[in-house]
């Protein structure tokens, strides 16, 4: 991953490539929110990349910047080699057909005045595509005969998320960006939606970027996991590696907060993050996690750690990783 000291996938493997993505927002007079500060990642065709971190770490801002909503202030986003950050007007709208997003709150993301059929068919009608509403409703587990004529308020939260997924599928995308798609749902419904996404990924050949703050959810659905903190990448590794060999103190703090279960660290491995996250308006110097890190020293305040390899496929931005590099 150029710009962050990490390696790209083999040429031709990635469908989505993000380099040095930077997102800032104005926050009053002469103040700026540093939402995303130069993150990079690749997503291979057919892969699910999980992005995890606490609320406010920049996950959703990064996802929306990939969609160019809003445009990043710096960095590159390429879909199948096509640079999106320079596209405007019709060219950008056409490209967005191949890159669709599913939002956290399914009910508020649907127009309450329109029927399910109109909501799902809107995209294909705009682009003159075939009307495959019945097909995609069936694919997400809804009966077109009983669901298509109703409005969103007549459905449960889980059913509304199925409608949102159907709306995205109707445009036949290559990549689905799922922005905390199950966090607003009951646990039993969460499992149903996660299983549905896995089925749809296989059936339609989708590539997923899956955003969540719950490491247990991320581990179960992701091939690789990127850990973010205060707009920066901390660690990137296969899901199993991240759980079995967490190296960044922040990753270990996230795992330590998981209720007892298969992701729980031993008492010797546990690390806790002290205090509250700093403001993204005034992030700390050096390593942004240092103000809460039990391993921080003077070097962490003076020098920002670069992403470096710890093992094949395992990358970390930390001066004092919890596990040694593989020789």
UniProtKB/TrEMBL annotation:
Domain of life: Bacteria
CDD domains per UniProt: ABC_NikE_OppD_transporters
Residue runs in coiled coils: none
Family annotation (SMART domains): AAA
Pfam families for the chain: ABC_tran, oligo_HPY
Domain ABC transporter: 16-255
Recorded GO MF terms: ATP binding
Spans annotated as Disordered: 267-288
InterPro entries from the UniProt entry: AAA+_ATPase, ABC_transp_ATP-bind, ABC_transporter-like_ATP-bd, ABC_transporter-like_CS, Oligopep_ABC_C, P-loop_NTPase
Keywords, alphabetical: ATP-binding, Nucleotide-binding, Transport
UniProt KW Transport keyword: yes
Transmembrane parts of this sequence: none
Classification via PANTHER family: D,D-DIPEPTIDE TRANSPORT ATP-BINDING PROTEIN DDPF-RELATED, TRANSPORT ATP-BINDING PROTEIN
Membership in a protein family: Belongs to the ABC transporter superfamily.
NCBIfam families xrefs: oligo_HPY
Protein name: ABC transporter ATP-binding protein
């Amino acid at each position: 991953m150029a710009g962050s000291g990490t390696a790209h996938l083999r040429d031709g493997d990635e469908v989505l490539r993000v380099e040095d993505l930077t997102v800032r927002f104005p926050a009053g007079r002469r103040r700026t929110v540093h939402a995303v500060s130069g993150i990079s990642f690749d997503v291979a065709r057919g892969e699910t990349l999980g992005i995890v971190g606490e609320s406010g770490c920049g996950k959703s801002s990064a996802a929306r910047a990939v969609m160019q909503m809003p445009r990043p202030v710096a960095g590159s986003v390429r879909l199948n080699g096509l640079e999106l950050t320079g596209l405007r007007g019709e060219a950008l709208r056409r490209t967005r057909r191949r890159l669709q997003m599913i939002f956290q709150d399914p009910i508020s993301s649907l127009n309450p005045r329109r029927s399910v059929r109109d909501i799902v068919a809107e995209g294909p009608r705009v682009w003159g595509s075939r009307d495959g509403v019945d097909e995609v409703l069936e694919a997400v587990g809804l009966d077109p005969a009983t669901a298509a004529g109703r409005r969103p308020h007549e459905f449960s939260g889980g059913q509304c998320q199925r409608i949102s997924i159907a709306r995205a599928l109707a445009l036949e995308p290559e990549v689905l960006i799922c922005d905390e798609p199950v966090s607003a749902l009951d646990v039993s419904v969460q499992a149903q939606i996660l299983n549905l996404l896995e089925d749809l990924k296989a059936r339609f050949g989708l590539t997923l970027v899956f955003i969540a703050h719950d490491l247990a959810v991320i581990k179960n659905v992701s091939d690789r996991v990127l850990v973010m903190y205060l707009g920066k990448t901390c660690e990137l590794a296969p899901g199993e590696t991240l759980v079995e060999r967490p190296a960044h103190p922040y990753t270990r703090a996230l795992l330590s907060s998981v209720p007892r279960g298969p992701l729980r660290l031993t008492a010797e491995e546990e690390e806790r993050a002290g205090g509250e996250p700093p403001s993204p308006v005034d992030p700390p110097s050096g390593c942004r996690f240092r103000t809460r890190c039990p391993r921080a020293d003077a070097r962490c305040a003076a020098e920002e750690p670069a992403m470096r390899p710890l093992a094949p496929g395992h990358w970390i931005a930390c001066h004092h990783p919890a596990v040694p590099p593989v020789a």
